[in-house]
Specification:
By secondary structure, this protein is of the alpha+beta class. It has one domain. The protein contains 7 helices and 10 strands.
């Protein structure tokens, strides 16, 4: 029997539902990181640091299979240099409360009182330490396929809009208030064309079928999904010393366009979307947009 015939024929029934384990993925080169970059106002699929595909549209349909419960933070102590090798942040926090235990030289013992959290510590009136939230997402057309990390900056997290223009925090609260989980829906994310930096809006498109929902739940429990929502910064020999000065220009990752200013409270807040609008009735008006 040839090797090709072995894999194409006579597959035992017990192996038909078996997925690749972590050992095989690692040895086969499939265990690398996969993420969605928002650089340049485009959805870019990045695998092991290499861009493999760029979306031609300004919107993307996904299923959110997992998400970090807390808003994380990152601080870079020097300005972004596109010619320099990538380096880890000078300080970071997974929970937004205190620096991660693996940080060698924390800027402060807690995030709230940190000098890098002071308005004006970054460029202009911004804060040098930035907010982020990590999601693990699957493509709506291929829920059983790859899981990607999506890192949202503060402009895509905070704020208020109408039902067509919801930042992520508002969107998650809206879906939860209707009594549904995020992994039961196809979510559309699209760029705000009026923003100078990468800013996303979210809205629900349709409910998943039972089979799709079961797949989304399985995906959310995979190592890939769990790794996508956890910030694990590898420390590298020869990384420049950390800066402790309260005034420092932030160093931005290579997806610099995704960095945005931390949200500020406003007096003239717009009202929340009315809770009386049921999610099913809202999405029924979008039924023609599914394709």
């Amino acid at each position: 029997m040839s090797e090709l015939a072995l894999f194409n024929n006579n597959l035992p029934d017990y192996l038909k539902e078996v997925e690749l384990d972590d050992v095989t993925k690692a040895l086969a080169g499939g265990g690398g990181s996969k993420r969605i970059s928002l650089r340049g106002g485009k959805f870019r699929m990045v695998v092991n640091g290499e861009e493999v595909m760029t979306s031609k549209n300004d919107e993307l349909e996904i299923v959110i299979v997992n998400a970090a419960k807390d808003v994380s933070r990152q601080f870079y102590g020097s300005a972004y240099n596109p010619k320099a090798d990538a380096t880890p942040p000078d300080c970071w926090s997974n929970d937004g409360i205190a620096p991660d235990k693996s940080v060698k030289e924390a800027q402060h013992h807690n995030c709230a009182e940190c000098p890098q959290n002071i308005k004006g510590s970054g460029q202009g009136d911004s804060r040098a330490c930035r907010h982020f939230r990590r999601l693990a997402v699957a493509m709506a057309h291929d829920i059983n396929g790859d899981v990607y990390q999506l890192q949202l900056a503060s402009k895509s997290i905070f704020g208020k809009g109408d039902l067509e223009h919801m930042p992520f925090e508002q969107y998650a609260k809206y879906v939860g208030a209707q009594g549904y989980n995020l992994n039961t829906l196809v979510t559309q994310m699209r760029f705000d064309e009026t923003s100078d930096t990468a800013k996303l809006f979210f809205k629900p498109l349709k409910f998943l079928s039972r089979e799709e929902w079961e797949a989304a739940k399985r995906q959310g429990d995979t190592p890939a999904a769990k790794n996508a929502i956890q910030m694990t910064v590898a420390q590298t020999d020869g990384v420049k010393p950390k800066l402790a000065a309260p005034k420092a220009e932030p160093k931005v990752e290579k997806v610099a366009a995704e960095e945005v200013e931390e949200p500020k409270k406003r007096e003239d807040k717009k009202p929340e979307p009315t809770a009386k609008r049921d999610l099913k009735s809202v999405m029924s008006g979008w039924s023609t947009d599914d394709e």
